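#onboarding

Welcome to the new folks! Below is a worked example of what a typical request in this channel looks like: someone posts a single protein sequence, and someone else replies with the predicted structure as tokens. Don't worry about understanding the tokens yet, we'll cover that in week two.

Example request:
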Amino acid sequence: MSQMSLILPQEFIVPDYDGHTIGNVPATIAALLDAPFEGLRPLANPLWQPLGKVRRVVLFIVDALGWNLFQQERQRLSGIFDRAQVEGQITSIFPSTTVAALSTLWSGLAPAQHGMLGLELFMPDFAVTMQTLGFTPAFDKYPDALVKAGLVPETFLHGPGFAEQLAASGVSSYAFKGREIVNSALSKMHGRGLAGNFGVLSLADMFVQIRALLEEKAGQSFYVNAYWPTIDTMTHVYNWDHAAVAAEFRAIMQQLDQELLSSLSVAARRETVFLLVADHGQTPTPPEQQIYLDDHPDLRQLLFMAPAGEPRTPYLYVKHGRQTEVMDYIKTNLNQAMVAIPADQALSVGLLGPMPHAPTAADRVGDVLVTMRSGYVLLTEKDRESAKILVARHGGMTAPEMQVPWVGYRLDA
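Example response:
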């Protein structure tokens, strides 16, 4: 990342795309497989070189497994983690949200490079703000509505897919995720170049299917990407430090150990690495830190549409010539809750990733990028019902959102 001319609160953790983020994971996997790769560089050497060169890599992505939860439960799971050859803390990308982070893990590019920059993105070609989990207009749920209108998921991301790059060097890729999302537009967007795309009914089903693939293709070179969402789902409702969330994490790790790591044959273990990572963590967002745009009419009238992005990092689209007024209003009236950055400056200093950027990046971050402090969120009226349920969120740059674990096992060690 270039030297930043931004003055940011100390609570913010700026992603270091030069070897310390989840964006560096695909290049790391390519290096482990000795496959050529174009994108962000690999992680810092101590985070992967002890694993050596291998023929097969399994990446397990646990949605919202923050470093805080990992550290809290680390000792209770020492029997599993003490067998790892590498273990450390890396960070998410910015914005620290699932659609951007998974797109990064499926491309090896930062958000500004691949163009998936948040949960809600203004799509000028369709004159609508799109909710990117469902490719639906943000104002209501019409799944795949933008696909029906002509948006092609397979060409939405800028740059080649990770599976496509691996396939070019003879390495097949396989994805495992919930059956309900395996054929979604988002999955199609990420799955360019896959040799197999498997839907699962449960976590145990996932591990059993991955084990069968490793056994069936023993000795063959390939990559497995497995994604599991329950920590994220529960943390949104309970917060990361709830007993049920901790129990869920322990159950995930115990099933992983029993059904996969400890159950493979010698042949299936040979030249195989298993990696654990998260896309982001979460931070508490209590009711008293919920800020509604309609409670700030002077700010609202400076904008020509509702914010895009997400409640922890909104993108503001400002009426012509009014950017300075928006910046001044936020600094004067909302400084304790948020930091406003001219969007072009946020891009130019590399906050959302180094150059070159996707041609769509500037349009998708609006005129003013706002990122929230502590547990604050910026909401609109359409968010009022969900705000009663979601007690924790992600998308910003605070430590609970940004810091995630990185663990690697060489299975034939």
